[in-house]
Write a sequence for this structure.
């Protein structure tokens, strides 16, 4: 019976976790920085490297080849 009560207490604690200060600090830092960056660095087979918006269909501005993501 005591084991059941202990397991129930553990399960209850796991269902309602409290936010940790590290997580809150990370979220605050992300908000201050303006959020995630929606640009990526691509490198084409022609040797050209460029930054572009993250997408499933990005073409190289130099040769026009679509880049695999």
């Amino acid at each position: 019976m005591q084991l059941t009560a202990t397991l129930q207490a553990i399960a209850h604690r796991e269902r309602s976790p409290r936010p940790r200060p590290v997580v809150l600090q990370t979220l605050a830092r992300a908000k201050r920085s303006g959020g995630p960056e929606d640009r990526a660095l691509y490198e084409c087979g022609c040797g050209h490297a460029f930054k572009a918006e993250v997408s499933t269909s990005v073409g190289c501005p130099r040769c026009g080849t679509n880049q695999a993501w």
About this structure: The mean pLDDT is 80.
